[in-house]
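Sharing in case it's useful to others searching the archive later.

Someone asked me privately for the predicted structure of Dipeptidase, so I'm posting the question and my answer publicly. Question first, with the sequence:
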Amino acid sequence: MTQRIRSCTTFLVGKHASIDGSAMIARNEDGGDTPNPQKFVVVHPDEQPTEFKAAATGTLISLPDKPLKYTSTPDADKRFGVWGAAGINQANVAMTATETITTNPRILGLDPLVPEGIGEADILSLVLPYIHTAKEGVLRLGQLLATYGTNESNGIAFSDQEDVWYMETLGGHRWAAIRIPDDAYVIATNRLNIDLFDFDSDDTLYSADLPEFIQSHQLNPDAKVINLRHIFGSSSSKDTCYNNPRAWYVQRYFNPEIEQVPTDHELPFICRPAKKISIEDVKYVLSSHYQHTPFDPYGTTNDATRKQFRPIGINRNLETHILQIRSNMPTDIIGIHWLAFGPNTFNALVPFYASVNQTPACYRETPTIFNPNYMFWLSTLTAVLGDSHYDSYKNLATDTEQQVLAACRYIQYQTDQEYLNHDKTLPNLEAVNQKMADLAFAHANTLLGKMTEKGFGEMTLSFPLAD
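And my answer, the predicted structure tokens:
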């Protein structure tokens, strides 16, 4: 079976690095050169199979009893597997899976990828319904990798109310994970990202034989430290134009005081922000296209410079999620599955409550063929039109994004206060989510109309009225 190719950008925030004490894991899920429609669903325990078929190979994997309910953003087209991508389960554990990364040929010669193993299309479905903490997520996936192996190299993140963990596969069966410090953030692109690693720390986990594997095969190029990126990762010309610049731009945004260059292979993995990070900050960097630099594809420099580096916000964005586990809220309303469909420059995030039984239809029932009555297709259409005359449309798109965010935040605040001030009686969260979805859809439709009206007068097929 042909596999879908994904190329994503991951961003992680420890609870003390965020402005409100929330742990956040976020990712742009990117696809190929044609639209790949996405859904936003809730998977109930009775919908989870007892035996899961791996997408690429058909390998059957037995699943544990008593799965948890969880949100998910799968493909509308199921022919290539589930591709659950991201979600929050009823234990308020969040997971984003996965970031496609690199492993070098030296490693793959010793621990080859496993063609019949599990892959990105499978991982969320195999792990998220069965874990009650972020650390449990790492350990469960590690066990699956040891048993079945993986057919690709990936990075995966987990979070709960206390912890954020980031995990990378290091070959067919080996893996390593690190707990992100509470006061730190991470930008992870399509390369192996973890650098300095301490096997003796309580904040690391790894496959059982990893230290011996490194030592027995003489894999460490460094004399005094363990740097997983040096040992297992790549340092290629592709990294200098495709991966490193994205990390550079994000670190430049959160740490403008540090001088770095976009092609640097040694950009740090763990970073401390100069100021605390908000949801709006995360959306900005995940939508970014090197604004205010010579590398902006919408800029005015020569074409070669503008197209030198792969942007973060790109036409291939399928969906963007920020999975927020809030520290200051009761259990029933802790988890917020922020979601936007389509290319990020022209979309808006909606803060959906995760503790629901159903999601709004315009996000849930996405058809596989074009239909602008559904949010994925409406957002994609708006982006295609907006890209054609970016300077004309950018302010309209920015204004719409801000209006949607402000209106949804107001609804969210009212809902939180209703819960907190009325003996903790749970509001109808499905109705709240529907209200926000309707609002976001109406604003997106209005934006498309305004862009059409403005673009009409800028068409090439024009001539002054002189009759």
